[in-house]
Protein backbone atom coordinates (compact mmCIF):
# COMPACT_ATOMS: atom_id res chain seq x y z
CA UNK A 1 0.00 0.00 0.00
CA UNK A 2 1.60 3.27 -1.02
CA UNK A 3 1.51 6.00 1.53
CA UNK A 4 2.15 9.64 0.95
CA UNK A 5 5.48 10.13 2.61
CA UNK A 6 6.79 13.53 3.61
CA UNK A 7 10.10 14.69 2.20
CA UNK A 8 12.90 12.53 3.54
CA UNK A 9 14.45 14.29 6.52
CA UNK A 10 15.15 12.66 9.82
CA UNK A 11 13.34 14.34 12.70
CA UNK A 12 16.58 14.03 14.65
CA UNK A 13 18.39 16.38 12.28
CA UNK A 14 15.52 18.69 11.42
CA UNK A 15 15.13 21.93 13.31
CA UNK A 16 12.62 21.63 16.17
CA UNK A 17 9.07 22.63 15.35
CA UNK A 18 8.19 26.17 16.29
CA UNK A 19 5.77 26.94 19.07
CA UNK A 20 2.70 27.65 17.01
CA UNK A 21 3.01 24.37 15.11
CA UNK A 22 3.42 22.49 18.38
CA UNK A 23 0.40 24.29 19.84
CA UNK A 24 -1.66 23.40 16.82
CA UNK A 25 -0.72 19.71 16.98
CA UNK A 26 -1.28 19.62 20.74
CA UNK A 27 -4.74 21.12 20.20
CA UNK A 28 -5.53 18.30 17.77
CA UNK A 29 -4.38 15.73 20.33
CA UNK A 30 -6.63 17.38 22.94
CA UNK A 31 -9.67 17.35 20.70
CA UNK A 32 -9.26 13.74 19.58
CA UNK A 33 -8.40 12.43 23.06
CA UNK A 34 -11.14 14.59 24.60
CA UNK A 35 -8.51 15.82 27.06
CA UNK A 36 -8.23 19.33 28.49
CA UNK A 37 -4.46 19.37 28.07
CA UNK A 38 -1.82 17.21 26.43
CA UNK A 39 1.84 18.01 27.17
CA UNK A 40 4.33 18.20 24.31
CA UNK A 41 5.74 14.83 25.32
CA UNK A 42 2.37 13.24 26.09
CA UNK A 43 2.18 9.75 24.56
CA UNK A 44 -1.06 9.39 22.61
CA UNK A 45 -1.46 5.71 23.41
CA UNK A 46 -0.72 6.12 27.11
CA UNK A 47 -3.31 8.91 27.24
CA UNK A 48 -6.05 6.55 26.10
CA UNK A 49 -5.66 6.82 22.35
CA UNK A 50 -5.86 3.81 20.07
CA UNK A 51 -4.99 3.18 16.46
CA UNK A 52 -8.45 4.07 15.21
CA UNK A 53 -8.49 7.56 16.66
CA UNK A 54 -4.80 8.02 15.89
CA UNK A 55 -5.87 8.22 12.28
CA UNK A 56 -8.07 11.17 13.22
CA UNK A 57 -4.98 13.02 14.41
CA UNK A 58 -3.30 12.30 11.08
CA UNK A 59 -6.38 13.47 9.19
CA UNK A 60 -6.55 16.71 11.18
CA UNK A 61 -2.80 17.31 10.79
CA UNK A 62 -3.12 16.80 7.05
CA UNK A 63 -5.95 19.33 6.84
CA UNK A 64 -4.22 21.91 9.04
CA UNK A 65 -0.66 21.55 7.79
CA UNK A 66 -0.91 19.85 4.41
CA UNK A 67 1.42 17.05 5.51
CA UNK A 68 0.29 13.46 5.33
CA UNK A 69 2.05 11.29 7.87
CA UNK A 70 1.86 7.50 7.82
CA UNK A 71 0.61 5.45 10.73
CA UNK A 72 4.15 4.09 11.26
CA UNK A 73 5.57 7.61 11.46
CA UNK A 74 2.99 8.47 14.07
CA UNK A 75 3.69 5.35 16.12
CA UNK A 76 7.45 6.05 16.09
CA UNK A 77 6.89 9.11 18.30
CA UNK A 78 3.21 9.49 19.17
CA UNK A 79 3.52 12.81 21.00
CA UNK A 80 2.60 16.36 19.98
CA UNK A 81 6.32 17.19 19.81
CA UNK A 82 7.05 14.11 17.73
CA UNK A 83 4.28 14.82 15.25
CA UNK A 84 5.17 18.53 15.08
CA UNK A 85 8.78 17.61 14.34
CA UNK A 86 7.68 15.31 11.53
CA UNK A 87 5.53 18.06 10.07
CA UNK A 88 8.37 20.56 10.34
CA UNK A 89 10.75 18.05 8.77
CA UNK A 90 8.45 17.78 5.82
CA UNK A 91 9.42 21.36 5.13
CA UNK A 92 5.95 22.78 5.33
CA UNK A 93 5.92 24.82 8.48
CA UNK A 94 3.15 27.20 7.47
CA UNK A 95 0.37 26.80 9.97
CA UNK A 96 -2.85 26.99 8.02
CA UNK A 97 -5.10 27.33 11.00
CA UNK A 98 -6.43 24.99 13.61
CA UNK A 99 -8.20 21.82 12.57
CA UNK A 100 -11.63 23.16 13.46
CA UNK B 1 -52.15 8.09 20.06
CA UNK B 2 -54.24 5.34 21.52
CA UNK B 3 -57.40 6.25 23.36
CA UNK B 4 -56.97 3.12 25.46
CA UNK B 5 -56.07 3.66 29.08
CA UNK B 6 -53.45 1.32 30.40
CA UNK B 7 -52.69 0.22 33.92
CA UNK B 8 -49.43 0.94 35.68
CA UNK B 9 -47.58 4.18 36.07
CA UNK B 10 -48.73 7.18 38.04
CA UNK B 11 -52.24 7.34 36.57
CA UNK B 12 -53.30 3.69 36.27
CA UNK B 13 -53.87 0.99 38.87
CA UNK B 14 -50.83 -1.16 39.63
CA UNK B 15 -50.84 -4.39 37.64
CA UNK B 16 -51.41 -7.69 39.40
CA UNK B 17 -50.52 -9.84 36.42
CA UNK B 18 -48.51 -9.53 33.22
CA UNK B 19 -47.58 -11.57 30.18
CA UNK B 20 -44.11 -11.01 28.74
CA UNK B 21 -43.58 -11.93 25.09
CA UNK B 22 -40.00 -13.01 24.44
CA UNK B 23 -37.47 -14.70 26.73
CA UNK B 24 -34.39 -12.80 25.65
CA UNK B 25 -32.50 -10.49 27.98
CA UNK B 26 -35.08 -7.69 27.76
CA UNK B 27 -38.10 -9.88 28.44
CA UNK B 28 -36.45 -11.88 31.21
CA UNK B 29 -35.11 -8.74 32.90
CA UNK B 30 -38.62 -7.27 32.90
CA UNK B 31 -40.22 -10.53 34.00
CA UNK B 32 -37.88 -11.14 36.94
CA UNK B 33 -38.26 -7.54 38.07
CA UNK B 34 -42.06 -7.79 37.95
CA UNK B 35 -42.14 -11.21 39.65
CA UNK B 36 -39.87 -9.94 42.42
CA UNK B 37 -42.47 -7.26 43.13
CA UNK B 38 -45.29 -9.76 43.38
CA UNK B 39 -46.73 -9.47 39.90
CA UNK B 40 -47.98 -12.79 38.49
CA UNK B 41 -45.86 -13.13 35.36
CA UNK B 42 -45.98 -15.56 32.48
CA UNK B 43 -43.24 -15.41 29.84
CA UNK B 44 -44.09 -16.74 26.39
CA UNK B 45 -41.18 -17.71 24.16
CA UNK B 46 -41.41 -18.94 20.56
CA UNK B 47 -38.09 -20.79 20.63
CA UNK B 48 -37.63 -24.10 22.41
CA UNK B 49 -35.32 -22.40 24.92
CA UNK B 50 -34.66 -19.00 26.49
CA UNK B 51 -31.87 -16.70 25.32
CA UNK B 52 -33.09 -14.65 22.38
CA UNK B 53 -30.04 -13.39 20.54
CA UNK B 54 -27.70 -14.94 23.10
CA UNK B 55 -26.85 -18.56 22.43
CA UNK B 56 -24.17 -20.91 23.72
CA UNK B 57 -22.12 -23.52 21.92
CA UNK B 58 -20.37 -26.21 23.97
CA UNK B 59 -17.00 -26.61 22.22
CA UNK B 60 -15.61 -29.12 24.72
CA UNK B 61 -17.19 -30.70 27.79
CA UNK B 62 -18.19 -27.83 30.07
CA UNK B 63 -16.56 -25.19 27.85
CA UNK B 64 -18.91 -22.75 26.21
CA UNK B 65 -18.56 -19.96 23.74
CA UNK B 66 -21.04 -17.50 22.27
CA UNK B 67 -22.84 -18.06 18.99
CA UNK B 68 -24.71 -14.79 19.51
CA UNK B 69 -24.21 -11.68 21.64
CA UNK B 70 -20.90 -11.95 23.44
CA UNK B 71 -19.06 -8.83 24.49
CA UNK B 72 -19.33 -6.27 27.21
CA UNK B 73 -17.39 -3.33 28.64
CA UNK B 74 -17.24 -1.41 31.90
CA UNK B 75 -19.87 1.09 30.79
CA UNK B 76 -22.39 -1.75 30.55
CA UNK B 77 -23.29 -1.20 34.16
CA UNK B 78 -26.73 -2.86 34.19
CA UNK B 79 -25.31 -5.97 32.55
CA UNK B 80 -22.49 -6.09 35.09
CA UNK B 81 -25.00 -5.69 37.93
CA UNK B 82 -27.17 -8.48 36.57
CA UNK B 83 -24.16 -10.77 36.11
CA UNK B 84 -23.08 -10.13 39.70
CA UNK B 85 -26.60 -10.83 41.00
CA UNK B 86 -26.66 -14.00 38.94
CA UNK B 87 -23.30 -15.17 40.26
CA UNK B 88 -21.71 -15.11 36.81
CA UNK B 89 -18.18 -13.95 36.06
CA UNK B 90 -16.61 -12.21 33.11
CA UNK B 91 -13.42 -13.18 31.30
CA UNK B 92 -11.17 -10.69 29.52
CA UNK B 93 -11.02 -10.85 25.75
CA UNK B 94 -7.40 -11.56 24.89
CA UNK B 95 -6.00 -9.67 21.92
CA UNK B 96 -2.25 -10.17 22.01
CA UNK B 97 -0.09 -10.38 18.93
CA UNK B 98 -0.26 -9.30 15.33
CA UNK B 99 -3.28 -9.10 13.06
CA UNK B 100 -3.79 -10.37 9.55
CA UNK B 101 -5.30 -8.26 6.77
CA UNK B 102 -6.37 -9.45 3.34
CA UNK B 103 -7.60 -6.21 1.83
CA UNK B 104 -6.46 -6.53 -1.77
CA UNK B 105 -8.19 -8.23 -4.68
CA UNK B 106 -6.30 -11.48 -4.26
CA UNK B 107 -5.78 -13.88 -1.36
CA UNK B 108 -2.49 -12.26 -0.26
CA UNK B 109 -2.46 -11.03 3.30
CA UNK B 110 -0.38 -8.64 5.34
CA UNK B 111 0.62 -9.08 8.97
CA UNK B 112 0.65 -6.04 11.20
CA UNK B 113 1.09 -5.31 14.87
CA UNK B 114 -2.08 -4.21 16.58
CA UNK B 115 -5.35 -3.82 14.76
CA UNK B 116 -4.45 -1.07 12.32
CA UNK B 117 -5.04 -2.09 8.69
CA UNK B 118 -2.42 -1.50 5.99
CA UNK B 119 -4.40 1.31 4.42
CA UNK B 120 -3.84 5.03 4.04
CA UNK B 121 -4.03 6.34 7.60
CA UNK B 122 -5.04 9.87 6.59
CA UNK B 123 -7.89 8.54 4.44
CA UNK B 124 -9.16 6.38 7.32
CA UNK B 125 -8.73 9.32 9.65
CA UNK B 126 -10.86 11.46 7.35
CA UNK B 127 -13.55 8.76 7.55
CA UNK B 128 -13.43 8.58 11.34
CA UNK B 129 -13.37 12.36 11.71
CA UNK B 130 -16.56 12.54 9.64
CA UNK B 131 -18.18 9.72 11.60
CA UNK B 132 -17.21 11.35 14.87
CA UNK B 133 -18.77 14.62 13.75
CA UNK B 134 -22.02 12.85 12.83
CA UNK B 135 -22.02 10.92 16.08
CA UNK B 136 -21.42 13.98 18.23
CA UNK B 137 -24.34 15.79 16.59
CA UNK B 138 -26.92 13.12 17.50
CA UNK B 139 -29.37 13.98 20.22
CA UNK B 140 -28.83 10.88 22.35
CA UNK B 141 -32.17 10.71 24.16
CA UNK B 142 -34.25 11.47 21.07
CA UNK B 143 -32.34 10.84 17.82
CA UNK B 144 -35.33 11.98 15.76
CA UNK B 145 -34.81 15.49 17.16
CA UNK B 146 -31.18 15.64 16.00
CA UNK B 147 -30.38 18.77 13.96
CA UNK B 148 -30.92 17.96 10.27
CA UNK B 149 -32.67 14.72 11.26
CA UNK B 150 -34.77 14.70 8.09
CA UNK B 151 -31.74 14.96 5.87
CA UNK B 152 -29.75 12.39 7.85
CA UNK B 153 -32.67 9.97 8.10
CA UNK B 154 -33.46 10.26 4.41
CA UNK B 155 -30.04 9.16 3.21
CA UNK B 156 -28.43 5.74 3.38
CA UNK B 157 -24.92 5.28 4.73
CA UNK B 158 -23.98 4.06 1.24
CA UNK B 159 -25.14 7.36 -0.32
CA UNK B 160 -23.22 9.23 2.35
CA UNK B 161 -20.02 7.28 1.67
CA UNK B 162 -20.39 7.91 -2.04
CA UNK B 163 -20.52 11.65 -1.40
CA UNK B 164 -18.07 11.97 1.47
CA UNK B 165 -15.32 9.43 0.91
CA UNK B 166 -13.17 10.21 -2.12
CA UNK B 167 -10.23 7.96 -1.16
CA UNK B 168 -10.42 4.30 -2.30
CA UNK B 169 -9.01 3.08 1.01
CA UNK B 170 -11.80 4.77 2.96
CA UNK B 171 -14.37 3.35 0.54
CA UNK B 172 -12.89 -0.11 0.98
CA UNK B 173 -12.78 0.07 4.75
CA UNK B 174 -16.12 1.73 5.49
CA UNK B 175 -18.39 -1.25 4.69
CA UNK B 176 -16.06 -3.59 6.60
CA UNK B 177 -16.16 -1.27 9.58
CA UNK B 178 -19.94 -0.93 9.48
CA UNK B 179 -20.36 -4.68 9.06
CA UNK B 180 -18.19 -5.41 12.04
CA UNK B 181 -19.66 -2.61 14.14
CA UNK B 182 -23.38 -3.05 13.49
CA UNK B 183 -23.82 -6.01 11.12
CA UNK B 184 -25.09 -3.67 8.44
CA UNK B 185 -24.51 -3.16 4.78
CA UNK B 186 -24.20 0.61 4.20
CA UNK B 187 -27.16 0.52 1.80
CA UNK B 188 -29.42 -0.83 4.55
CA UNK B 189 -29.14 1.88 7.19
CA UNK B 190 -29.83 5.57 7.26
CA UNK B 191 -27.04 7.96 8.19
CA UNK B 192 -29.08 8.89 11.26
CA UNK B 193 -29.26 5.26 12.33
CA UNK B 194 -25.53 4.77 11.88
CA UNK B 195 -24.78 7.88 13.90
CA UNK B 196 -27.35 6.99 16.55
CA UNK B 197 -25.96 3.49 16.92
CA UNK B 198 -22.43 4.80 17.34
CA UNK B 199 -23.53 7.49 19.79
CA UNK B 200 -25.74 5.21 21.82
CA UNK B 201 -22.98 2.64 22.22
CA UNK B 202 -20.53 5.20 23.62
CA UNK B 203 -18.90 6.58 20.48
CA UNK B 204 -16.50 5.22 17.90
CA UNK B 205 -13.54 4.59 20.12
CA UNK B 206 -15.48 2.85 22.90
CA UNK B 207 -17.48 0.68 20.51
CA UNK B 208 -14.43 -0.32 18.50
CA UNK B 209 -12.09 -1.07 21.40
CA UNK B 210 -11.48 -4.38 23.06
CA UNK B 211 -9.43 -3.40 26.14
CA UNK B 212 -11.09 -0.33 27.65
CA UNK B 213 -14.03 -0.63 25.26
CA UNK B 214 -17.22 -2.48 24.48
CA UNK B 215 -15.39 -5.75 23.72
CA UNK B 216 -13.26 -5.83 26.86
CA UNK B 217 -14.88 -8.92 28.38
CA UNK B 218 -17.05 -11.91 27.68
CA UNK B 219 -19.38 -13.73 30.04
CA UNK B 220 -17.53 -16.74 31.40
CA UNK B 221 -19.50 -19.79 30.30
CA UNK B 222 -21.40 -17.83 27.66
CA UNK B 223 -23.82 -14.90 27.70
CA UNK B 224 -26.77 -17.29 27.25
CA UNK B 225 -26.15 -18.42 30.81
CA UNK B 226 -27.44 -15.07 32.05
CA UNK B 227 -30.80 -15.74 30.42
CA UNK B 228 -30.84 -19.22 31.96
CA UNK B 229 -30.15 -17.78 35.42
CA UNK B 230 -32.88 -15.18 34.99
CA UNK B 231 -35.32 -17.91 33.98
CA UNK B 232 -34.39 -19.86 37.13
CA UNK B 233 -34.95 -16.78 39.24
CA UNK B 234 -38.28 -16.13 37.56
CA UNK B 235 -39.46 -19.62 38.38
CA UNK B 236 -38.20 -19.30 41.97
CA UNK B 237 -40.30 -16.14 42.31
CA UNK B 238 -43.39 -17.98 41.10
CA UNK B 239 -43.32 -16.81 37.48
CA UNK B 240 -44.29 -19.01 34.56
CA UNK B 241 -42.26 -19.67 31.42
CA UNK B 242 -43.58 -21.39 28.33
CA UNK B 243 -41.21 -22.10 25.48
CA UNK B 244 -42.21 -23.16 21.99
CA UNK B 245 -45.28 -20.90 21.97
CA UNK B 246 -45.10 -18.11 19.38
CA UNK B 247 -47.51 -15.29 20.16
CA UNK B 248 -49.90 -14.55 17.31
CA UNK B 249 -52.33 -11.97 18.65
CA UNK B 250 -52.96 -9.57 21.51
CA UNK B 251 -56.46 -8.35 22.32
CA UNK B 252 -57.20 -5.78 24.95
CA UNK B 253 -60.40 -4.59 26.57
CA UNK B 254 -61.41 -2.48 29.54
CA UNK B 255 -60.55 -5.18 32.03
CA UNK B 256 -57.39 -6.70 30.69
CA UNK B 257 -55.45 -8.19 27.85
CA UNK B 258 -55.59 -11.61 26.20
CA UNK B 259 -52.48 -12.98 24.55
CA UNK B 260 -53.03 -15.74 22.03
CA UNK B 261 -50.37 -18.26 21.10
CA UNK B 262 -50.80 -21.19 18.73
CA UNK B 263 -51.57 -23.39 21.72
CA UNK B 264 -53.42 -21.33 24.30
CA UNK B 265 -54.60 -17.94 25.47
CA UNK B 266 -53.33 -16.02 28.48
CA UNK B 267 -55.16 -13.32 30.37
CA UNK B 268 -53.39 -10.55 32.29
CA UNK B 269 -53.60 -6.89 33.28
CA UNK B 270 -50.84 -5.91 30.86
CA UNK B 271 -48.46 -7.34 28.27
CA UNK B 272 -44.81 -6.57 27.63
CA UNK B 273 -43.74 -7.19 24.04
CA UNK B 274 -40.00 -7.82 24.22
CA UNK B 275 -39.19 -9.11 20.75
CA UNK B 276 -37.32 -7.41 17.88
CA UNK B 277 -39.30 -4.80 15.88
CA UNK B 278 -39.93 -6.99 12.83
CA UNK B 279 -41.46 -9.68 15.05
CA UNK B 280 -43.44 -7.23 17.19
CA UNK B 281 -44.89 -5.74 14.04
CA UNK B 282 -46.11 -9.17 12.91
CA UNK B 283 -48.32 -9.68 15.98
CA UNK B 284 -52.02 -8.96 15.47
CA UNK B 285 -53.14 -6.28 17.88
CA UNK B 286 -56.74 -5.37 18.50
CA UNK B 287 -58.82 -3.43 18.83
CA UNK B 288 -56.88 -0.55 17.32
CA UNK B 289 -53.40 -0.87 15.91
CA UNK B 290 -50.41 0.47 17.80
CA UNK B 291 -47.96 2.77 16.04
CA UNK B 292 -45.86 0.63 13.69
CA UNK B 293 -42.88 -1.12 15.26
CA UNK B 294 -41.10 -1.46 11.91
CA UNK B 295 -41.28 0.19 8.49
CA UNK B 296 -40.80 -1.11 4.97
CA UNK B 297 -37.10 -0.23 5.15
CA UNK B 298 -36.49 -1.76 8.59
CA UNK B 299 -34.01 -4.55 8.02
CA UNK B 300 -32.49 -7.51 9.73
CA UNK B 301 -29.07 -7.20 11.31
CA UNK B 302 -26.99 -9.18 8.85
CA UNK B 303 -24.72 -11.44 10.84
CA UNK B 304 -23.82 -15.07 10.45
CA UNK B 305 -21.46 -16.11 13.21
CA UNK B 306 -19.06 -18.97 12.59
CA UNK B 307 -17.10 -20.77 15.26
CA UNK B 308 -14.16 -22.81 13.98
CA UNK B 309 -12.80 -25.11 16.66
CA UNK B 310 -9.21 -26.41 16.72
CA UNK B 311 -7.43 -28.52 19.34
CA UNK B 312 -5.35 -25.50 20.41
CA UNK B 313 -5.19 -21.77 19.56
CA UNK B 314 -2.05 -22.46 17.53
CA UNK B 315 -1.93 -18.96 16.05
CA UNK B 316 -0.86 -17.61 19.45
CA UNK B 317 2.45 -19.50 19.27
CA UNK B 318 3.09 -17.71 15.95
CA UNK B 319 2.66 -14.28 17.51
CA UNK B 320 -0.79 -13.81 16.01
CA UNK B 321 -3.89 -12.59 17.82
CA UNK B 322 -6.38 -14.39 15.61
CA UNK B 323 -7.75 -11.01 14.58
CA UNK B 324 -8.12 -10.51 10.86
CA UNK B 325 -10.00 -8.14 8.57
CA UNK B 326 -10.69 -9.23 5.02
CA UNK B 327 -12.14 -7.54 1.98
CA UNK B 328 -13.48 -10.83 0.59
CA UNK B 329 -15.80 -13.17 2.42
CA UNK B 330 -17.06 -15.20 3.89
CA UNK B 331 -14.88 -14.35 6.92
CA UNK B 332 -14.87 -10.54 6.85
CA UNK B 333 -13.28 -10.57 10.26
CA UNK B 334 -12.02 -13.19 12.67
CA UNK B 335 -11.32 -13.06 16.37
CA UNK B 336 -9.81 -15.44 18.92
CA UNK B 337 -12.75 -16.78 20.91
CA UNK B 338 -10.88 -19.51 22.78
CA UNK B 339 -12.63 -20.19 26.09
CA UNK B 340 -10.91 -18.72 29.19
CA UNK B 341 -9.65 -22.21 30.10
CA UNK B 342 -7.23 -21.93 27.14
CA UNK B 343 -8.51 -24.70 24.90
CA UNK B 344 -9.87 -25.75 22.53
CA UNK B 345 -8.78 -22.99 20.19
CA UNK B 346 -11.75 -21.15 18.76
CA UNK B 347 -11.55 -18.79 15.84
CA UNK B 348 -14.83 -16.96 15.46
CA UNK B 349 -15.64 -15.50 12.08
CA UNK B 350 -18.14 -12.78 11.30
CA UNK B 351 -19.99 -12.88 8.01
CA UNK B 352 -21.82 -9.58 7.90
CA UNK B 353 -23.71 -7.19 5.65
CA UNK B 354 -24.44 -8.29 2.09
CA UNK B 355 -21.96 -11.17 2.46
CA UNK B 356 -24.19 -12.72 5.13
CA UNK B 357 -27.00 -13.18 2.59
CA UNK B 358 -24.65 -14.76 0.05
CA UNK B 359 -23.19 -17.11 2.64
CA UNK B 360 -26.59 -18.07 4.05
CA UNK B 361 -27.66 -19.20 0.58
CA UNK B 362 -24.88 -21.85 0.43
CA UNK B 363 -25.50 -25.41 1.57
CA UNK B 364 -23.83 -26.66 4.74
CA UNK B 365 -20.97 -28.35 2.90
CA UNK B 366 -20.19 -25.28 0.85
CA UNK B 367 -20.31 -23.07 3.93
CA UNK B 368 -17.85 -25.21 5.79
CA UNK B 369 -15.50 -25.58 2.82
CA UNK B 370 -15.43 -21.82 2.15
CA UNK B 371 -14.85 -20.85 5.77
CA UNK B 372 -12.24 -23.50 6.54
CA UNK B 373 -10.30 -22.71 3.36
CA UNK B 374 -10.26 -18.99 4.07
CA UNK B 375 -9.17 -19.52 7.68
CA UNK B 376 -6.34 -21.77 6.47
CA UNK B 377 -5.18 -19.11 3.99
CA UNK B 378 -5.10 -16.49 6.73
CA UNK B 379 -3.53 -18.78 9.31
CA UNK B 380 -1.59 -21.45 7.41
CA UNK B 381 -0.53 -23.12 10.69
CA UNK B 382 -4.10 -24.24 11.35
CA UNK B 383 -4.85 -27.96 11.30
CA UNK B 384 -8.23 -29.31 10.19
CA UNK B 385 -10.92 -27.98 12.52
CA UNK B 386 -12.38 -30.43 15.03
CA UNK B 387 -15.63 -28.48 15.19
CA UNK B 388 -17.54 -26.06 13.02
CA UNK B 389 -20.64 -24.16 14.07
CA UNK B 390 -22.74 -21.86 11.91
CA UNK B 391 -25.34 -19.58 13.48
CA UNK B 392 -27.36 -17.88 10.79
CA UNK B 393 -29.12 -15.06 12.60
CA UNK B 394 -30.38 -13.48 9.38
CA UNK B 395 -32.73 -16.39 8.71
CA UNK B 396 -33.54 -17.18 12.32
CA UNK B 397 -37.35 -16.88 12.22
CA UNK B 398 -37.70 -15.82 15.84
CA UNK B 399 -34.91 -13.24 15.78
CA UNK B 400 -34.98 -11.98 12.20
CA UNK B 401 -31.46 -10.68 12.39
CA UNK B 402 -28.60 -9.91 14.72
CA UNK B 403 -26.96 -7.91 16.27
CA UNK B 404 -30.12 -5.78 16.07
CA UNK B 405 -32.74 -4.48 13.67
CA UNK B 406 -31.38 -2.06 11.08
CA UNK B 407 -33.31 1.19 10.86
CA UNK B 408 -33.43 2.19 7.23
CA UNK B 409 -34.25 5.56 5.70
CA UNK B 410 -37.22 7.18 7.41
CA UNK B 411 -37.35 4.76 10.32
CA UNK B 412 -36.02 6.94 13.12
CA UNK B 413 -38.35 9.80 12.25
CA UNK B 414 -41.43 7.58 11.99
CA UNK B 415 -40.69 4.88 14.60
CA UNK B 416 -38.50 6.74 17.06
CA UNK B 417 -41.06 8.88 18.88
CA UNK B 418 -43.26 5.84 19.65
CA UNK B 419 -40.50 3.33 20.51
CA UNK B 420 -41.38 3.23 24.21
CA UNK B 421 -44.91 4.69 24.20
CA UNK B 422 -47.38 2.16 25.64
CA UNK B 423 -50.39 1.24 23.50
CA UNK B 424 -53.00 0.92 26.20
CA UNK B 425 -52.10 -2.24 28.09
CA UNK B 426 -49.30 -3.08 25.66
CA UNK B 427 -45.80 -2.04 26.72
CA UNK B 428 -42.61 -2.36 24.70
CA UNK B 429 -39.12 -3.61 25.49
CA UNK B 430 -36.13 -4.92 23.58
CA UNK B 431 -32.71 -3.49 22.82
CA UNK B 432 -34.18 -1.60 19.85
CA UNK B 433 -36.36 0.43 22.23
CA UNK B 434 -33.34 1.68 24.17
CA UNK B 435 -31.61 4.85 23.07
CA UNK B 436 -28.85 3.86 25.50
CA UNK B 437 -26.69 1.04 24.10
CA UNK B 438 -29.13 0.33 21.26
CA UNK B 439 -28.54 -3.11 19.84
CA UNK B 440 -26.39 -4.34 22.71
CA UNK B 441 -27.14 -6.61 25.67
CA UNK B 442 -26.89 -3.53 27.88
CA UNK B 443 -29.66 -1.84 25.89
CA UNK B 444 -31.87 -4.91 26.24
CA UNK B 445 -31.48 -4.95 30.02
CA UNK B 446 -32.07 -1.21 30.32
CA UNK B 447 -35.26 -1.58 28.27
CA UNK B 448 -36.42 -4.39 30.56
CA UNK B 449 -35.86 -2.28 33.64
CA UNK B 450 -37.62 0.69 32.04
CA UNK B 451 -40.68 -1.32 31.07
CA UNK B 452 -40.95 -2.95 34.51
CA UNK B 453 -40.89 0.52 36.07
CA UNK B 454 -43.80 1.51 33.79
CA UNK B 455 -45.91 -1.25 35.30
CA UNK B 456 -44.91 -1.10 38.95
CA UNK B 457 -46.33 1.39 41.46
CA UNK B 458 -43.95 4.28 42.09
Topology, pairings included?
The complex is a heterodimer of chains A (100) and B (458).
Chain A: H1 19-33, H2 51-65, H3 71-76, H4 80-89
Helix pairs in contact in A: 1-2, 1-4
Chain B: E1 17-21, H1 25-36, E2 40-45, E3 56-60, E4 63-66, E5 71-72, H2 77-85, E6 90-92, E7 98-102, E8 110-113, H3 121-137, H4 149-154, H5 157-164, H6 168-182, H7 191-200, H8 204-208, E9 217-219, H9 224-236, E10 240-243, E11 247-252, E12 257-261, E13 265-268, E14 270-273, H10 277-280, E15 284-286, E16 303-310, E17 320-326, E18 333-336, E19 345-352, H11 354-360, H12 364-378, E20 387-392, H13 411-415, E21 426-428, H14 441-455
Parallel strand pairs in B: 1-2, 1-14, 2-10, 7-17, 11-15, 14-21
Antiparallel strand pairs in B: 3-4, 5-9, 6-9, 7-8, 11-12, 12-13, 16-19, 16-20, 17-18, 18-19
Helix pairs in contact in B: 1-9, 1-14, 3-6, 3-7
Bulk shape of chain A = globular
How many helical elements of chain B? 14
The SS-based structural class of chain A is mainly alpha
Principal-axes shape call of chain B? globular
Question: Helix amount of chain A, in percent?
Answer: 40-55%
Which parts of chain B are unreliable, with pLDDT below 50 for 5 consecutive residues or more? none
Most extensive interface, chain pair and sizes: A-B, 21 and 21 residues
Characterize the biggest β-sheet of chain B.
7 strands, mixed
Mean pLDDT of chain A: 81
Amino acid sequence: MSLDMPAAASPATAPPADGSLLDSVAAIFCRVLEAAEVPADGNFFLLGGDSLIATRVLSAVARAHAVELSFEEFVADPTPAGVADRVAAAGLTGVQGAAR
Amino acid sequence: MSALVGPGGPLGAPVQSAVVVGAGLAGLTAATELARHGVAVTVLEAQPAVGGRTRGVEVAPGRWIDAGAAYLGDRHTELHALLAESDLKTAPTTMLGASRFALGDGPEHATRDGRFPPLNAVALGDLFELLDELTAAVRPDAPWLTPNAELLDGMTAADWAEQQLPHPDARLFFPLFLGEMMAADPADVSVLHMATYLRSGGGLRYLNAFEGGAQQDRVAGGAHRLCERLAERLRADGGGLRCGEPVRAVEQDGAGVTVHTELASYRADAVVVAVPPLLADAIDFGPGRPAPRAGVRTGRGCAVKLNLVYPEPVWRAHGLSGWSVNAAGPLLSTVDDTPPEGSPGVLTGFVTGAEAHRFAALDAGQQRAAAVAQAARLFPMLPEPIGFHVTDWVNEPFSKGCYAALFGPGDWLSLGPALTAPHGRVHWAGTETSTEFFGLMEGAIRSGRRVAAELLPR
